[in-house]
UniProtKB/TrEMBL annotation:
Lineage: Bacteria, Pseudomonadati, Pseudomonadota, Alphaproteobacteria, Sphingomonadales
Segments forming domain NADPH-dependent FMN reductase-like: 11-155
InterPro entries the record matches: Flavoprotein-like_sf, FMN_Rdtase-like_dom, NAD(P)H-dep_reductase
MF terms in GO: FMN binding; oxidoreductase activity
Listed Gene3D superfamilies: 3.40.50.360
Name under which the protein is recorded: NAD(P)H-dependent oxidoreductase
GO cellular component: cytosol
Length: 194
């Protein structure tokens, strides 16, 4: 099913790390670029964006402008791609804090990530944490009622290096990340039409 070029649906990317150049964020950008080539509009919430989100307080009576912008983007999205580093065998606190904020959508007609394809990316400095981080992300997406897409990218940043131009030392990794963008794009219009 083709997307309408006059109003391209939105793919929101959530991921990265804080404090400097992030291979996780660069990996996410490659996947989002692939979705853009399929005609989608994209918006990325990277490390610097997630760092501005306060620790999620479910009882807070007001939300910051950054919190509101994040929730509004996910509400508007037709698909999401999440990229986390493996921190001590699981997803990072920064990424989890952003995902916790989606509790604000609990009472929406479409709560959380319901009915959305969700692409998943994990980086780690070794292989072991890539698998456990992908598994954790899949569990979280299921809890949020999203649909993890079939292929998830597990990237060992000890061996694969990313550059600022959207490339990586291993072309196979670039292809894997692009596949995530394409799989999300393939499924999102079908969901929106149902
Ligand atoms: C707090 C912390 C915990 C980490 N835990 C693991 C780990 O358990 N296994 C692993 O392989 N790498 C671990 N790493 C390494 C990161 O997962 C890895 O360097 C990742 O690619 C960083 O992504 P970035 O370049 O986007 O910052 C850890 C790094 C930090 C800072």
């Amino acid at each position: 099913m083709a997307v309408d070029p006059a109003s391209p649906p939105l793919v929101v990317g959530i991921g990265g790390t804080i404090g400097g150049i992030s291979s996780t964020e660069r990996a996410l950008r490659i996947a989002l670029d692939a979705a853009e080539r399929e005609g989608f509009h994209t918006r990325m919430f990277g490390g610097a964006d997630m760092a501005r989100l306060p620790l999620y307080d479910p009882r807070a009576t007001t939300r910051t402008a950054d919190e509101q912008a994040f929730v509004a983007a996910v509400r508007e999205a037709s698909a999401v791609i999440i990229a986390s580093p493996g921190y001590h065998g699981s997803i990072s606190g920064v990424v989890k804090n952003a995902l916790d904020l989606l509790e604000e959508t609990a009472k929406d007609d479409r709560p959380y990530l319901a009915d959305m394809p969700v692409g998943l990316i994990a980086t780690a400095y070794g292989w072991q944490a890539t698998g456990s981080t992908i598994a954790a992300l899949r569990s979280i997406v299921h809890a949020l009622r999203g649909w993890p897409t079939p292929f998830a990218a597990a990237i060992n940043t000890q061996v694969t290096k990313f550059d600022a131009e959207g490339g990586a030392s291993d072309p196979a990794v670039v292809e894997q990340l692009s596949m995530i963008g394409r799989q999300v794009a393939r499924f999102a219009p079908l969901v929106a039409a149902s």
